[in-house]
Write a structure and sequence with these properties.
InterPro entries: PLAT/LH2_dom_sf (IPR036392). By secondary structure, the chain is an all-beta fold. It is built from no helices and six strands.
Length: 80
């Protein structure tokens, strides 16, 4: 099974889904793989600004030695 990750400005090449701890894709079985990138600002330190700007996210495929850049260019604000 393969997936790709996509955003508004970039996407990855096809990635293979595997689980080294068990056999995948056996007849009559269900396999689930979830991949997500979440970003947020918790505003834990009251001395810091409550608003941050997220310029980019880099996902690295360590096996293939490749990087994928996603550029959200958005403000992270706990008030909104």
């Amino acid at each position: 099974m393969h997936i790709d990750i996509s955003g508004n400005n970039d996407y990855t090449r096809v990635q293979t889904l595997t689980d080294s701890h068990r056999k995948n894709f056996q007849q009559g079985e269900t396999d689930a793989f979830i991949m997500a990138v979440s970003s947020w600002h918790a505003n834990i330190d009251k001395g810091c600004s409550s608003s941050w700007f997220l310029k980019y996210i880099i996902i690295r495929n360590l096996q293939a030695l490749k990087k994928f850049h996603f550029i959200p260019q958005q403000r992270c604000d706990v008030e909104k």
